[in-house]
Amino acid sequence: MTTNASAALADALGPQHSDSLFAPDGTVLLEQSPQLAQVRVVVPLTQDEETRLRAYLERIVGRAVEMDVRTDRSILGGVWVRMDDLVIDGTVRARLSALHERLCASCVIPQGAGPGRHRESQ
Predict the structure, then answer these.
(1) DSSP label at 75?
(2) How confident is the model at residue 108 (pLDDT cuts 50, 70, 90)?
């Protein structure tokens, strides 16, 4: 973090927190408690996959990560991670939704057309 950004952060948090956030040379101190990561996958991770995912997340947050891994078939595949405000959505469901949005962005649907409009004739 730059000195200006560090100063802005210290000002925003107030004097009661600034001493615990910064070393005497102005560098940001990392929290020592592990970061909780909520992880959702379709099938349980192997030990190797869990180790690699934890290492990746630890590089992102700069400290140890404790993972709460749960299975969720609704994501269809891939992985979903939430750490506080940070959400990493690498699920098949999210990718399909993004593809749908891109394809439909250029579509023009005539007024009155759409799901359920022609069911009267059945």
Answers:
(1) G
(2) confident
